[in-house]
Amino acid sequence: MIFAGGVPIKVGETVIGAVGVSGGTGKQDQGVAEAAAQAFARG
User: Fold this and answer.
1) CB neighbourhood size of 10 (10 A)
2) Cα gap 12→5, rounded to integer Å
3) What are the tens digits of pLDDT across the range 1-43?
4) Which H or E run contains 21?
5) pTM here?
6) pLDDT for position 1
7) DSSP 2-17
8) How far is CA 34 from its chain centroid?
9) Which residue ranges make up each domain of the chain?
10) Cα 6 from chain centroid?
11) Distance CA 7, CA 34 (A)
12) Neighbours of 33 (CB within 10 A)
């Protein structure tokens, strides 16, 4: 992780997008971004 709140979205090893979250603490932002990326991956 380079910046808290930013999570890449990948298909295989190819980055196809990202989720970025800001507004809370770094830990909060990261948790929300990871949850959003997981939801996207589930479809």
Assistant:
1) 13
2) 21
3) 667 999 999 989 999 999 999 999 999 999 999 999 999 888 7
4) none
5) 0.82
6) 61
7) -STTEEEEEETTEEEE
8) 4
9) 6-42
10) 5
11) 6
12) 22
Tokens of 37: 């990326």
Q: What is the pLDDT at residue 42?
A: 87
Which residue shows structure tokens 């980055």? 15
How far from 8 is each of 21, 27, 29, 34, CA to CA, in Å? Answer: 12, 17, 14, 9
| 9 Cβ neighbours under 8 A, 6+ residues apart | 15, 16, 17, 18, 19, 37, 40, 41
Count of C-beta atoms within a 10 Å radius of residue 39: 10
User: What is the reported pLDDT for 31?
Assistant: 96
Residue 29 CB: number of other CB atoms within 10 A? 19
